[in-house]
Amino acid sequence: MDERKYRAVKYIRLSVADGKKDRDGSRIEKIESDSVANQRKFIDEWLSRHPEIEAVSEEVDDGFSGLLFDRPAFKHMMEDIESGKIDCCITRDLSRFGREYIETGRYLRRIFPAYGVRFIAINDSIDTLDDSGDDLAMSLKSIINDAYCRDISIKTRSALKVKRQCGDHIGAFAVYGYRKSDENRNLLVPDDYAAKVVRDIFAMKLGGLSASRIAASLNGLGILAPARYKKDRGMPCAGGGFSGSGTAKWCPNTIIRILKDETYTGTLVQGKTETPNYKLKEICRKPESEWVKVENAHEPVIAKADFELAQRLMRLDTRTAPGGGSVYVFSGLLVCGCCGNRMVRKSAPGNGKRYYNYWCPTTKKGGCARSAMIKEDALAAAVLENVKAHVASVASLETLIAGLDAGRVGRELAARLAEQLDENERRLEKIREFKAGLYENMTGGNLSKDEYRSLKAKYGDDADILAAANERLKQEIDDALSCKHERMAWLERFRQFESLGALDRKTVATLIRRIRIVGKREIEIEWSYQSEYETVLAMLKREVA
């Protein structure tokens, strides 16, 4: 036995920190967990029986995984080892030092011996000074510790996947406008004040304001930005980065992020990111097809129709006037009747006034031979007249439908949905047949085991997608038969504009999909819900005939 005096470091690690936290989730006082205290006591008792080892320092990583070695106390310990301050490391057991098999072995077999460091894991009876620290014993224990982490990771991922699919909110923080229910922490409920701000943001967007103008308006009213609001109310919120500054104001990016968040319609969207495996902590963004979406998971703050309209407005050309914050009424909706390109707005002085026109920019490049320029006031008057006529036509159509049969449209829509349901069921049955024959093909030598597993997984995924689609179709059929389907709401959407006196951005974006400028006196309007309108019109013609 070596009779030299060893200068040892007591290394202690715990995966989950037990420190006290403020209501916003930030640590306000570091309080050692009982497990840290127990590890220290255990090591001290062992040292009392080994006077040849003197503890000269202690390093504690409280709240750090054993899979990673990028721990602050561990790195400080390695600095002391490299400088020669310590030549012995003592832990309660090997798992406290690390759980990752390869990296743990690298430290114990290469790095520590290179620096002449003795390693002791008391509970595992490992001491590199004698045979108790042989490669076989450490390898087996390291493999077991690594396998334990993998098993925990698999179980955790599986549990979270089930919770997502059931519509449970598993995020650490609620999105602005919501809070976690006091009775069910996996359920989002509207936060009255913040939800009103979210509604105002959508209303301003539908009214034609740009994201910059909306942000400036909220800042001007003294409304706190999401991170500051949560901290002011003592609500949990994410720390670090933009959210952690504590002085951030509303900005266009925040407005756009809120406008694009489907959570406000009652749809819970989760599983957007993941880590490759339990050993790698880099976050990777998953393709949208793999996100988990659950509709009606919580109470909506924004109507789905308004949300979809906001998405359409953001997809359109939303350039604003220089120095202004409002989007032009026809922005992104006008196309040239000759070449199909977007038309742009330009101004020209005349008689002490400014006149505004729309024209095709490709004319100058010689790409449009029959482009027509149209005055903005003439265009507005023509569109307003057409909108009034079309709304009146739709209102009359609704009266005729009610007079004929209130449920006729719903039944026809349900019939079309039922056709798609039958098609899906046919495909689903075919997939099940293919899947059932896979095993026979493998045992018959037509498929390898890897091909069998791959095809089985693919058919299983396809079947799950179709089964979910069929459930949605069944619900839509029920809604159509009870006249509550979204596709039947277009009549009500048009009726709200019956008393229209002037055009605004919301009206134009709601009712019109595109305006083709054919000539100075000729325009063609493509209406929203055009197919629904034509379907009902054809139904009425058949009824009259």
Overview of this structure, please?
Helix content is 47%, strand content 15%. With 545 residues, it is an alpha/beta fold. The protein has a five-stranded mixed β-sheet, with helices on both faces. Helix 4 (101-114) runs antiparallel to helix 5 (135-165), helix 7 packs across helix 9 (252-259) and helix 11 packs across helix 16. It is elongated. 24% of the residues are buried. Mean pLDDT is 79; it is low at 17-31 and 240-247.
Strands in their spatial order, largest beta sheet:
4-1-5-6-7
What general form does the structure show?
Answer: elongated
Overall pLDDT: 79
The Cα radius of gyration reads: 34 Å
Question: SSE layout and pairings?
Answer:
Blueprint: E1 6-14, E2 20-21, E3 27-29, H1 34-48, E4 53-62, H2 72-83, E5 88-91, H3 94-97, H4 101-114, E6 118-121, E7 126-127, H5 135-165, E8 178-180, E9 188-190, H6 192-206, H7 211-220, H8 226-232, H9 252-259, E10 268-270, E11 273-274, E12 284-285, E13 292-294, H10 304-315, E14 334-336, E15 344-350, E16 353-359, E17 374-375, H11 376-404, H12 408-443, H13 449-481, H14 490-495, H15 505-511, E18 512-519, E19 522-527, H16 530-544
Parallel strand pairs: 1-4, 1-5, 5-6, 14-18
Antiparallel strand pairs: 2-3, 6-7, 8-9, 10-13, 11-12, 15-16, 16-17, 18-19
Helix pairs in contact: 4-5, 7-9, 11-16, 12-13
